[in-house]
Amino acid sequence: MSLQQIHGTTFCPVKVKLLKVGSRGKEVVELQHLLNSAGANPKLDPDGKFGTGTEKAVVSFQRQKGLIADGLVGSKTLCALRNTDSVSKDITQEDLVWAAKQLKCSVAAIMAVHEVESRGEGFLADGRPAILYERHIMRRQLVSHGVNPTQFIKKYPNLVNTKTGGYKGGTHEHDRLNEARTIHDTAALESASWGAYQIMGFHWKALGYSSVQNYVTTMYESERRHLEAFVRFVRLDSRLLKAIQDTDFETFARYYNGPAYAQHGYHTRLAAAYRRNVDLLATAA
Q1: pTM of the prediction?
Q2: Cβ(68)–Cβ(91) under 8 Å?
Q3: Which residues contact 205 (CB under 8 A, 6 or more apart)?
Q4: CA-CA distance, 159 to 139, in Å (whole number)?
Q5: pLDDT (mean) for 108-113
Q6: CA distance linking residue 98 with residue 268, whole number of Å
Q7: In Å, how far are 26, 154, 208, 210 from 108, measured between CA atoms?
Q8: Integer Cα distance of 108 and 114 in angstroms
Q9: Which pLDDT band holds residue 7 (cuts at 50, 70, 90)?
């Protein structure tokens, strides 16, 4: 099966606005009706206000279905509520518990990273893994493979460049990648970040994959495979490992997200998600 084909057909094509405590409107009304139909106890008043009662009903439903029990309602939870053919590729709460054991850290810390880094989605609506193609990495990888990038920088500046940028987002990143693969297949695959945790392809050897093509094929399989790559990646860096074990999210963000971590508030978002998930897990104890 080629990298362009979708492994299986049971992904959820629905993409929706994330609903959480504080959300309001007709989407919340629909959610509350769906939760009531799914057996919410006590029954919810479909008032269109996502409060603590709705959150508790969401968490209860997520636990029942083996979803990540974070109280956040995205496409996966809605697919399950609508009895849609839910994603066999989806990560589960059990997977996150496994990762926490592997890294000897708290489950809430893993849940926070999953929430902030992956935004809850490792795949696009068409079943392909989420990616971000990096043109400046392509220039570097071409050099590493003995290819002079100069002519490509001039001819394809959006694909090969000394500077970051050129991002188009979503499926368009796959379009950029496919164009770059006509220049040099291996270098192009190494120049994209892959999956829920956006780990760069050029790490394939350090992560223990046989080739970048093997790594990419694995990223097409499931979010569990994305999580396995994340666990391998964190283990490679003692600073990251200690930071997640200590719930030191500023240090974690510094080394995981790079120097712009503070500008984007990754550390504060991770800390907030961690605190919220600690509370959710405590209610289940």
Answers
A1: 0.76
A2: yes
A3: none
A4: 9
A5: 96
A6: 25
A7: 31, 47, 27, 32
A8: 10
A9: very low
